[in-house]
Amino acid sequence: ACGMQTPEQTTTEEPTQESTQEQTNQEASEITLVYAEVNPLDTIVGQTGNVFKEKVEELSGGKIKIDIQASGVLGSENDVLDTMLGGGGTIDISRISAFALTSYGGEKSKLLSVPFTFVNREHFWNFATSDLAPEFLLEPHENGTGVRGLFYGEEGFRHFFTVDPVNSMEDLKGMKLRVSNDPVMNGMVRGIGADPTVVSFGELYSALQTGVVDGAEQPIANYKSNAFHEVAPNMILNGHTLGAIQVVMTDEAWDKLTTEQQDILMEAGRYASEFNREISEEAENKVLAELKAEGINIVEVSDITPWQEAVKDVVASETANNAELYQKIVDMQ
Amino acid sequence: MLNIFNTIDKIKPAYDMVYKIVLLLCKLLLIVDILITTMAVAGRYISFIPDPAWSEEVVLTLMAYMAVLSAALAIRRKAHIRMTAFDKYLPKKVLIALDILADVAVLALGVIMVVVGWRYAMLLGSRGSYVSMPSVSRFWMYFPVPLAGTAMVIFEIESIYNHIKEFFVKEEVYNEC
Amino acid sequence: MSAESMAILILLGSFFIMILLRFPIAYAVAISSVFTLMYQGLPLNTIAQQMVKGISYFSLMAVPFFITMGVLMGSGGISEKLILLAKACVGWMRGGMAMVNIVSSYFFGGISGSAAADTASLGSILIPMMVDQGYDDDFSTAITITSSVEGLLVPPSHNMVIYATTAGGISVGSLFLAGYVPAAILAITLMIGSYIISVKRNYPKGEKFSMINLLKQIFISFWALAAVLIVVVGVVGGVFTATESAAVAVIYSLIVSVYIYKGLDWKGVWKVLEACVDTLSIVLILIATSSIFGFLLTRLRVPTLASNAIIGLTDNPILLALLLNIILLVLGCIMDMAPIILIATPILLPIATSIGIDPIQFGIMVVLNCGIGLLTPPVGSVLFIGSAVGKVPMERVVKATLPFYICMIITLLLITFVPATSLWLPSLFR
Ligand code: NA
Ligand code: NA
């Protein structure tokens, strides 16, 4: 695989070997890990991946190389996960939205994408740095899915944006809103009285332009980078979910590493996670200011209670299996 | 030699039947795909018609089945696109030999698709579901691959047989002359 | 030689050899991918994964739906009415049907945004119509696939959205506006090209233009025209997306064929579906298996390698501009549009801006180059669809397309060296 160029792990198997010999072996065992990223490198998540790569290469003295393939050239999140789960080392690491694991039995991961779980960024980071986080990150590994989370990050809260101005939740009623096709998002849109509509992401710009859909939802940075503001220049900052992201690695690639190398990845992960926390809010505020300067109609939501009220049922049904755990997250604010 | 071919040729009606059944399936898959897509559009405007979240994933999966099954049919019709520009400069026998070579390679590919595809579909099926339908296993998304492999193997065997027959029968006819 | 270069050599080498040995292209791409995966020690299940991924994007569904629509219209009497209408319109002009084809693509491009969908829909209606009127089938197919590239330049264009997102900081709206004039230039060069060929080959020229006959034909073909209108009005008016319009158009042409023009009964419809499956059986598997091939080329970073090869070759801006086009054309021969745009844009755009090419102008260049790539062997989805819909062997289509490649290159050079072709229209709206 692209994983290891020499599969033998002489360094761990024969600790008594002479140091010169060991050095030669180590030099031979340079590792390249392929890292898939759906977004371009200059996005928040792309930069986070790059920082992770640099840190890993620095800490390992260049012995572990991360080959980032950005802009989704290796496929969508689900394509990449399917490839990783198939095994064989075609892709070793990928950055995914935490929610993506839901359709692979990620019951815990799903909790992070339940509407209005996190009241603010602080809240999310309380969770991401808590004792609960490692348990969540290891969920797919424990489930036998064959991947494990390395660290968390976020790309900001997701908000609705529309072709026509919207000042409150009431205004969204009856609108056709494009969301991803999963039950949680569909339930939420129905909850607020709008119609969830299936339109593929590739056709979304045109669908907004012609009016096939009245609106959609994205984090602020993605809203601008996909140029949706050109055709749907109204955004209501309801922040229904936080775009929680995580970097996952295949167990197969992980198990091939020495403990020392695994520690390097974890440390680089902590570093990248911290970096993500720093730039995420900053970058988003910058984009928000740019949008306002361009005359995009940005509406603040002063009272989030009616929104929360409207999606109560979805929240209850989606968290039913892990109610206790969910409460723990909610209590972290 | 001819006798053997005559005996084996008796299996042809069975092949015709398989072809007809697969063709029927392909037609049905195409119809259902068109109906679901139209329904999803209509459902957006007419309240009593459903506009389900699963429409996109289902349409894509059915089309995947249609694509691979119909491709196996095209093997039998010899319809697949290939470079035939130099055919007129090559002797008939060389052409048949090349056809057999290509058919054997595609047969091998079919076998790989059956074995690898089945394993992959089973593995992913045990680990994931459709995004819009949490209760439907991802197995069905990848099952078209081993299915296609099977159909390819079936029709390739016939095709290879026909080429071999062509090779020998023509020869004997030639000798008789 | 590094392991990566060896892998690329195996992938491309074995593929070309198999094509020369007359392997079906759909399976040659898959088999060469198997060799490469084995050489790299990667799992063969990549094949399963990529094949399914290759057919699994919704916009692609426009292709099977439009092909079905075209076949239904052909057998159900709709095309027949449209032929008479087209004769009344342009029959007086030599090569008139080729003109109709070129102009239709311009307008249809404003709906579908996909050259593949354009070829599938217009091709399955227009190619039989042209052959019926005495045009050669290879010429008819060639003009259909070439003019379909207009659709990539006329907005909406999904690929322009991909470019704008990848390049960063470019308005999709401006890029869309930038496409109209280059698409028109392409249309005009194609018209000139096809007119010359039509005169040379003595393609039909019907009776004199008659307004009365035209009005009569418009009246008779009302329901046929409505099929076209439903798609246009539905998409532009935001009733459905381009992909969905294709499915709706199938249902519509079915109803008109069976109940209004009565060219088909339900039994006939069932039979016609077989013709649809026959065409789709050739096209879809090619798209599926090409996806494995493209994935490997991507993973082996072929676009990056190719792009890096030209950096530093020369400082001459004119030569550099030509090299940018050449690199994109070469990549276009073996890869699909989207991965080229995604991978090559970040590398090539800085070179382009350094020699004074505007990012919007470069976007149009990228789209047209990749568009030409869709028509070139050995891997070209629109070429494949054209060959399947027109029922003409690939190499005959390629041969007939040769003069039109020249038309496209002329357009490309105009866009490259006359910035106003793409930048003038957006500048009016700033
Ligand atoms: Na277009
Ligand atoms: Na090509």
From TrEMBL, chain B:
One of its GO terms (biological process) is C4-dicarboxylate transport. It holds the Pfam family DctQ. The chain crosses the membrane at residues 21-46, 58-75, 96-119, 139-157. Belongs to the TRAP transporter small permease family. The keyword ATP-binding does not apply. It comes from Alkaliphilus metalliredigens (strain QYMF). This is Tripartite ATP-independent periplasmic transporter, DctQ component. Keywords: Cell inner membrane, Cell membrane, Membrane, Transmembrane, Transmembrane helix, Transport. It is a multi-pass membrane protein. One of its GO terms (molecular function) is transmembrane transporter activity. Residues 34-165 form the Tripartite ATP-independent periplasmic transporters DctQ component domain. GO terms for cellular component: plasma membrane. It comes from the Bacteria. It is found in: Cell inner membrane.
From TrEMBL, chain C:
Residues 12-420 form the TRAP C4-dicarboxylate transport system permease DctM subunit domain. Coiled coil: none annotated. It comes from Alkaliphilus metalliredigens (strain QYMF). The chain crosses the membrane at residues 54-72, 175-197, 218-240, 246-264, 276-297, 309-331, 338-357, 363-390, 402-425. It comes from the Bacteria. GO terms for molecular function: transmembrane transporter activity. It is a multi-pass membrane protein. It is found in: Cell inner membrane. NCBIfam families: dctM. Its main location: membrane. One of its GO terms (cellular component) is plasma membrane. Keywords: Cell inner membrane, Cell membrane, Membrane, Transmembrane, Transmembrane helix. PANTHER family: SIALIC ACID TRAP TRANSPORTER PERMEASE PROTEIN SIAT-RELATED (PTHR33362), TRAP TRANSPORTER LARGE PERMEASE PROTEIN (PTHR33362:SF2). InterPro entries: DctM, TRAP_DctM. This is TRAP dicarboxylate transporter, DctM subunit. It holds the Pfam family DctM.
